[in-house]
Amino acid sequence: MATQEDGKTPNLSQAEQQDVDKNQPPRAAVLHEIIRTQGDQELERSVAALWWSALAAGLTMGLSLMAMGLLNSRLPDGEAFKVIASFGYCAGFLAVILARQQLFTENTLTAVLPVMSKPTLGNAGRLVRLWTVVLVGNLCGTLLVAYVMLHLPIFDTRTDQAFLEIGRKIMENDTGQMFAKGIVSGWMIATMVWMIPSMESAKMWIIILITYLMALGDFTHIVVGSAEVSYLVFAGELPWKDFWLVFAGPTLAGNIIGGSFIFALISHAQIRSECSLPGKKAAAPRHPQRTDKDQ
To answer: Where are the membrane-spanning stretches (predicted)?
Structure first.
């Protein structure tokens, strides 16, 4: 029986102690291994599977632009109502992540951890292959949905103007701001991916919280932002050169740095430091909730 000297609560029965152990949150090392395993599975997928899933994700991310445009066009003007309209930004992320489609910024964490755990040329090549296929698929999907939303008679004039205003708002940033805000956005998406395995039952609320904060902060995201900015291009308000050089390039670099070189690297270093402590024994996993990919 536990004594007060060992710091534990006295007079707990064996069944009660088991309840305590069962309800402990998973260690950071367990979360790291869950995400690393998911990333390794993604790296093993065929190009065709990655491409179609990434294209679907790009199309689905158009829901964010659609939801924000519809809300902005139907709410009165004013900062208070912009706070409400920002919830529309969550729509695309919810649909993509819950449907397990390939989102580039999600892979800046999941697919990077296997490479950091085993830094070989083969793993680096697999990462470049996945990033290339998923990024191209995402961008093709977002550009296609923006073109369709503009040219097909789907929305009224007021909603079309709301879509244009969303793109104009992004292009108020210069390249330095695109890059800096992209770093924060990449870090926030990586944080979301890290949180989900320990709180699978609250996945939807985690996605809403993180992406809503991204919308409020006007942080730049390469996938959803490409739908918003390409809408300006197809409307004739912005040249393709500015799309690639002012928005896409700096934002992509910022997302990669925020998700991979900051969050993933620090998280991996934390686990390596914990595991390298002398005499440190790895605790048995506490059976964290199964993720969608385990099913």
So the answer is: 49-68, 80-99, 127-150, 178-197, 204-224, 244-266
CA distance 203 to 205: 6
Enumerate residues 6+ apart whose C-beta is below 8 A from 108: 186, 189, 190, 255, 256, 258, 259, 260, 264
pLDDT band at 28 (very low <50, low <70, confident <90, very high): confident
Q: What is the pLDDT of residue 19?
A: 60
pTM over 0.90: no
Reported as half-sphere exposure (CB side, CA atoms, 13 A), residue 283 has a value of 15
User: What sign for the dihedral angle of Cα 36, 221, 255, 204?
Assistant: negative
Identify the weakest region by mean pLDDT among 19-33, 113-127, 203-217: 19-33
DSSP letter assigned to residue 61: T
pLDDT score for 99: 95
CB atoms within 10 A of CB 259: 28
Rounded Cα gap, residues 65 and 161, in angstroms: 12
Interatomic CA distance for residues 225 and 227, integer angstroms = 5
